[in-house]
Amino acid sequence: MKQSMGVRAGLGLAALALLSGCALKTIHVTEEQFLPQRKTDWLSDRITRTNLELPLPDLPGQSLKGWRLNHPSPKAALVFFYGGGNTLWENLRLLHELSHRLEVDVVAYDVRGTGASGGKTRFETLRADALRIYDQQAKAGLPTLVMGYSLGSIPAVHLAANRPVQGLFVAAGISSFDEAKGHFDKLVPWYAKPFVGLEFAPVFQQRPQPVDQIATVKAPTLVMHGDADETLPVQCGDSLAQHSAASWKRYARLTGRGHGNLPLSSGEGLTAIKEWVAQASTAAQPS
To answer: Which residues form the AB hydrolase-1 domain (predicted)?
Structure first.
């Protein structure tokens, strides 16, 4: 067992006293010195977590499960939609960091069929559930901001286009299936391409696409995309930024960044997000 700094220092002083001929003194070792103590930080002391549940009316007995991270003095409430293949647990650290660094409450649910939520994941329910989440969680007097990462951009943009939110943030998002389908083509090895054809379900082509809906969103909008995105091409971000109809909009087109390493809680990414939150919060104030 490793000795703590307090124990080592005490034993060192005792040895020095013996070598110098001084009278031996008793050193009291406390539990706090000997046993490692949990560091207190904003994760445990400032941000509290409330469990959320949203019944699914089309699936009796099943529900969406989520969390609300409560900041002690929030500037806004951020509704967060994560990317495909993720769960709330996998995004826990990011959600806490966003709450802390942006000074916002964060509302997030496991998508149907993932994590703790019931049901089956479908494009139609992604969009419909986003509206129901807003209707249940919007807090009077607190601006509502919406963020979608990757696949989460679909419900995020849909929500912003259909409810009076005060800000929209799309990170590594999908503009349209036509621009994103190159990712699916990569699933077929080069040697099989002459013999294999991909046939996509009609749901992928249904309108409106996110690029259509973002053109109706007037709230302050931030689009962030890495030009080295290996999953969704940077052209998706280009199109979303181009078609945004917001009077205040910013496009953070980040050099050398891929799909999974956008700096959402540090560096230039965090600077852009803070600017967006400030603008959205200001725009939400009555004139």
So the answer is: 77-202
Could you tell me if 137 and 212 lie in one domain?
yes
Residue 94 and residue 72 share a domain: yes
Same domain, 67 and 134: yes
Q: Which two tokens stand for residue 42?
A: 């904003």
Could you tell me the pTM of the whole model?
0.80
Digitized pLDDT (tens) for each residue of the chain, 287 residues in all: 444 444 455 545 444 444 455 555 565 656 555 555 544 454 545 899 999 999 998 889 999 999 999 999 999 999 999 998 889 999 999 999 999 999 999 999 999 999 999 988 888 899 999 999 999 887 767 899 999 999 999 999 999 999 999 999 999 999 998 887 766 666 666 676 676 665 667 666 778 999 999 999 999 999 999 999 999 999 999 999 999 999 999 999 999 999 999 999 999 999 999 999 999 988 766 65
What is the domain extent for residue 194?
44-284
